[in-house]
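Hey,

Quick one before I head out. I ran the complex with magnesium ion overnight. Inputs first:
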Amino acid sequence: MDNSTSSEKVRADEQRRRGCEVARALPKQLLIGGRWVDARSGKTFETIEPATEQVVAAVAEGGVEDIDEAVRAARAAFDDGPWPRMRPHQRTRYLFKLAELIEAHHEELATLITLDNGKPLAEARAEVSRTAEVFVYYAGWTTKIYGETHPSEPALFNYTLREPLGVCGQIIPWNGPLSMIGWKVGPALACGNTVVLKPAEQTPLPALRFGQFVLEAGLPEGVVNIVTGFGPTAGAALARHPDVDKVAFTGSTEVGREILRASVPDLKRVSLELGGKSPNIIFADAELGPSVAGAAFGIFRNQGQICSAGSRIFVQREIYDEFARRLTQTAEGIRLGDPFQTETTMGPLISAEQYERVLGYCEAGRRDGAKVETGGERGGQSKGYFVKPTVFVDVDNSMRIAREEIFGPVASLIPFTDERDAALQGNETIYGLAAAIWTRDVSRVHRLARALKAGTVWVNCYNIIDPVSPFGGYKQSGIGRELGKDSLDLYTQVKSVFIKL
Ligand code: ADP
Ligand code: MG
């Protein structure tokens, strides 16, 4: 090891150590009604750093009773508190303040994200910036939530009011522990709702730090409540609580179905952002360099643990071998290792469970007759949930690795013949979150953008997400669209008022 590498290791360890200090100073409590309170059970659970398998900190384990308390606080804040009644301009200021606090603690938040989630620090930093942007974006919307007037009878005046829904239960995953707070809390607050947020049990730290910002920004009590805890207990209690008006969930399709089921007795509003098996389609006329880089970025960023990951890479036959060779080379150039070290471009998977699952899929791929060009096995240091970036060739769309969401750094290369075949195979999935096309043929771009059954289509790029634009799934990838103006529909309801003149 040369000197620069060893000094980088010292720096990384120092950042990790400071991050753990910050994490241990966070409240081991729940944010309910504007105060940090202990979990009723008095229980805590530990969060683990996936890169080292070391305990980072203990946090409060919220359960059914705590969810009940939190919903009561959110209910009171909505029914009697100032939040839905204040001037929208004032709500704008609160949202800006949250964005400012996020920006002001940029490196500290990025450190907490990397500690909890394992993504490389550069990706964690980008997540912090994007989250601040989402709050800024929705800060602007508070004053632009319009009703309409309608041309009814001459003797009638008819208009609509767009009103908040009430108490929103928001259950978020571990792959974007801060960005998902922005996507959920930003629009809910902009529209005048109150919130009970349940972060993923794997990544509670950024949410706890965010809870401190909520207090620092001076939001009225009970507007944002945060209950750390597990899915089947705290999460399920929130999803079925009769006093919750709306549940917003991002996570697995399996749990999404449970959330929807739990909404039935009270006919709760539900929005779901679920799994994917997104086709990334490379035509022979595409620029090879950018399409290889884009395909690698599409499947390997965040260790492939992204719902919109381009996990099925369809490559036109003429360039299949060349593309496979180049993608393999790119995968082998990825630096798997300590996510706190600057040169690292891929970190560990989130948990032992996810590690086993991903390696299990690699086994299934081999069994089904696909060939591993690179990866397919453990990598990195002796500790940590590291799986090497993996490229499978000779994959058929009917194999398990091409049908099921792996949520790991596993690319499946599938050949196709022509445009029709690409659309057919691309759409041959229960999911429909995203799709991408790489080509120089502009007419083909427009035809395929329409033909692909997916909520987002990227052309000559991948994984571009912008708060201005809606994101969500066709088919079993979800219900509803987050971000953009569309998210306002998820957090408001429309009232029609008739006045006899
Ligand atoms: P993963 O299996 O990848 O962790 P999940 O869909 O299980 O993804 O988890 C996403 C979020 O949903 C987490 O906050 C988790 O705690 C929560 N969750 C898990 N199971 C349930 C459930 N039965 N009801 C409500 N929330 C749940
Ligand atoms: Mg699960």
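The chain is about 40% helix and 20% strand.

Talk tomorrow,
K.
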